[in-house]
Every structure is written in structure tokens, then in C-alpha cells.
Amino acid sequence: MTSVTSPVTGRVIGLEAVPDPVFSGAMVGPGTAIDPVLEPVVAVAPVDGIVVSLHPHAFVVVDGEGHGVLTHLGIDTVQLNGEGFEVLINKGDTVKRGDAIVRWDPATAVAAGKSPICPIVALEATADALSDIKEDVDVKPGDTLFNW
């Protein structure tokens, strides 16, 4: 079982509340979402593993069991072309839960008219593969969001 932890500080709101049908409909996979604090944050690895995809606005870490966890920093933030983001590591790096991956200011996304909501998704998983999904609670990096 893999415990997936929060990459940012904020409030867990659930995937259904994400203002993007691809995430809210769990088309990418099941998981949850966080409404982050609107201050500069460092998004951290939600699991131990290898960074297999890395963009300023999103990253995927695959753990030793082959579970890929997507962290998406804001909605439509790819359109910011990296503004407000600073990538701190490299694709292919091995990370431990809690290691810094991207420095981000969610307020930059809000100022550009984008949602700061951060989906955390279990890629290629089924909804029944997840358990203990947190709902409507405040979290900080390292707090468990769900088990896979």
C-alpha cells in the first residue's frame, strides 16, 4: 500500500470541486484536490520515487510499486508559461516524500485569472483502489491524503 501525502499547504476539497471536467470527472484518475494557501509555497514529493514527468505546473512521481502520482499546480496554469513557478529538481531524479520539487506562488495564478486548485491524482488507478481519502480538512505537506 502506498500512502500519498499532500504536496502543499491548504484545504482538501475533493476532485469533484475542481473547475476542470477532466479532473472533476476523474478521467485522469481518482484522487483529491487541495485549495492551496495563497502565498509562495514549495510543492513537495507526495511519495518516494522517481520523477518521470516534470513541468513548472505539474509533475509525476512513480513509486517503487509502479504507482504514478500526478500533482497539478493550479488549473490551466500551463498557459502561464512557467511564470510564478521555479522548478527545483530534474526529470529522472529520485526523490523522497517531502523533497522540494517546485517553488510556486498560487497568487500568480489567481492574478492571471486561473484557479489555484491542485489536483493530486492516482494515475491509471480505479476509484476502489484508493482508501482513507481525506475530505474537507486542512493539510500541510506530508499529511496523508489517501492510501493506494
For the structure shown, list the relevant keywords.
mainly beta, single chain, Glucose Permease (Domain IIA), 148 residues, 2 helices, 13 strands, 8-stranded antiparallel β-sheet, 3-stranded antiparallel β-sheet, 7% helix
Written description of the protein model:
This protein is mainly beta and 148 residues long. It has a single domain, classed as Glucose Permease (Domain IIA), CATH 2.70.70.10. An eight-stranded antiparallel beta sheet has the order 9-5-6-7-11-3-2-12, with no helix packed on it. Strands 4-10-8 form a three-stranded antiparallel beta sheet, with no helix packed on it. The protein starts with a strand and ends with a strand. The relative contact order is 0.31. It is found in: Cytoplasm.
Quickly describe the structure.
The chain is mainly beta and 148 residues long.
